[in-house]
Amino acid sequence: MLVEKEREARCLAVLEKEQNFHRFATLRESAEGVYRYAASSEFAKGTIVRCPLGKGVEMCFFEYDLEKNTPMGGFDSEDVLEIFYCIEGTVRLDYADSSYLLTDNMIGVYDFDTCPCSIVFESRRFVGISLLLEGVAADETVGHYIGKAGMSLAEIKRHASQKKEMLTCFANHEIRKVFLSIAENPLDYDIDFLRLKAMELLLISGRSLSCLMTEQATTGRRNFDLRAFEVATRYMADNMSDAIAIGQIARAAGVSTTKLQRLFSDFCGQSVYRQLRLMRLDKARQLLRQGRLSVTDVAAAVGWQNPSKFSVAFKQEYGSTPRQFQMMS
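and the corresponding structure tokens:
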């Protein structure tokens, strides 16, 4: 009787999750434990792929385009932890007295026990990978594969609770490397491969978070660095059409140019100018996809006064000229 009740509870939980997905996406295909959804709504068009990896452990892949800034709200508190890698796009989490920004090549850990007032997806292409861990069930699954070598969900949540809301762990290059190997998707969402990578990710993330929180307990420097980095990236985004000098960005963030370079190396693994170039090209790609501006106008809008140099840079990054990309879009 008890087994039947547990099975019934699990079925209800699965059904509820399906209903939540169906609010904004339609299941198109289900094969070998992989669920592929098509998102087509007033705010997003693209795909979502769900890969259950064991009881309480799931990996999701997101790839869609947003026509406008899209706020989402009505989140419920749950015993769920999310480790999220924002490959491309910008997400802002708004709490009662603070906001957190995730953008290209950033990683965050989010405890669903403390829900934001809203999450705002900014209008652009959005690509990301999410590892979701649900309560005791996730601990059992993780424990089965890596034993006591990993940090329990409760321990990760305890570390996250010290920050209260969004715990960012951008600086660990090992975490990013695991996510990048997942993003390459060499075996087309093979469950065994993804499960192995999930355990690797949890092992590295747990140890990284432990070190990070120890550092934050002894100094407030990390919080200052994060805020300075966020101010710098926002300044770059807001002044993209201008010729921006590194000194201007540093002054806006309230740090020295040397410190600024170190922040970008830590938080996104790029130099300041490399990150600015990527942001400009990504914005150019958005404008070209919209098709309302000429290539020359797009170049000027993202800070290239010479359209020829813009075309060379665009092709180096994306493999096609701006005009070819615009025609294909």
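(Above: one complete record from the training split.) Confidence is low (pLDDT under 50) at residues 1-22.
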